[in-house]
Structures are given as structure tokens and as C-alpha cells.
Amino acid sequence: GAVVSQHPSWVICKSGTSVKIECRSLDFQATTMFWYRQFPKQSLMLMATSNEGSKATYEQGVEKDKFLINHASLTLSTLTVTSAHPEDSSFYICSAHPGAGNSPLHFGNGTRLTVT
Amino acid sequence: GDSVTQMEGPVTLSEEAFLTINCTYTATGYPSLFWYVQYPGEGLQLLLKATKADDKGSNKGFEATYRKETTSFHLEKGSVQVSDSAVYFCALSQDQGGKLIFGQGTELSVKP
Hints:
The structure holds 2 protein chains of 2 kinds.
Chain A: E1 4-7, E2 10-13, E3 19-25, E4 32-38, E5 44-51, E6 57-58, E7 67-73, E8 76-81, E9 90-97, E10 106-107, E11 111-115
Parallel strand pairs in A: 2-11
Antiparallel strand pairs in A: 1-3, 3-8, 4-5, 4-9, 5-6, 7-8, 9-10, 9-11
Chain B: E1 3-6, E2 11-14, E3 19-21, E4 23-26, E5 32-38, E6 44-50, E7 56-59, E8 62-65, E9 75-77, E10 86-93, E11 100-102, E12 106-111
């Protein structure tokens, strides 16, 4: 079945550094990928919609200069958390949509980011 | 805007008990409705879905019926197992599963 690979699964970084998270669709092409953020014991909050070959669409309240999204190919989207701070610590999850009618959304296993 | 509300957890049940997790939504038009499950340390997996009123989604013994009149999509299972312990998310989509709006999640813990 369709698989979405997210890497790394966890990362610890120092305050002020940048972290890149990759999301790959392994056996299908994804023109659209979504990035979510999940706080402990809370729901997933959509951060942005990543469109291959064009700029990402950010949800209200999400800083586009802080959370850089690049969707350079039909199988890869990256989220870069720039100048990370402890309040950016969270669980980040990507999802990819094959784009065909009623095809389901496929989720990566998430990335646990801890900023010290 | 559109939103989803789930019953608060955690829900703790004994094995073979009956499960209901309530989910109601607010949305314009006729969204598609979904239940996703998140096992510890993993990403989300689609459990079941329904795309129009009165549709019943079912999978692995779980089922939910799209009720337009009550704007609900309650998740049920007749006999839960320890392996069903996870967090369950109700969600809606206005574009057949692309952009999803999630409820807050309900943690289920099943004891042997």
C-alpha cells in the first residue's frame, strides 16, 4: 500500500539552530502534501499546504518565514524550522494526497522535535 | 469556519466492552467524514470514512454512520480488544480527504 516516509523520527537541537524535516511519498506522486503540528494530548493543527512547484499556503497564525516549506518534486516536501526556540518543540506530521478522486490521505509517522 | 468536536478522554474500558466515541461537526455543505487512529509513537492511519449522509463506514469491527440531521459521526465497536488502545481522531474534509480538520482526539485505553 501507499507509504509516506518522514525523516527524522526525532531530533534534538539547540535554540537558534534550524532543523529540516523531510516527507517522502514512496510509491505514489503527491502534488499536495500537508504539514501538521500536534501538541501533547491535543489535536493536529494544520500548518500549511505544500504544492509541488509553487509556494506553500499557510494557515492563519503560522509564520511562513519561520516554517519554510519546499515541495521541489512530486515525492518530496520539506519543512524547515528556522531559528528554533523551545516553544517550537512539538510533534510534526506530514501527509500526502495521491490526488486521485477519493484516494485517502497518507500520513508519515511524525517527527518529534525538541529544542533545548 | 468548519470544526469537529469529540468527547473528551481518556476512555478506559475492559476487554470485550462496547465502545462509543462521540463526534459532532459544524460545516457548510456536505463534507466527507473520517475516523483516524494513532497508535503510540506512530502516525495516523485511516480507520474508516463516509462521504455522504446515511453512509456507514466500517473497518476492523469499528463503524460510524454519517448523520446529517444530528451532524454526528459517532464511532462504535461492539467488543474492544487491548490492541485497540490508541488515540482516535474524528475529522472532516471539504475536498474528499485532502485538507482535513481534526477533532481534539480521544484516548482509548483497553484493559485485559
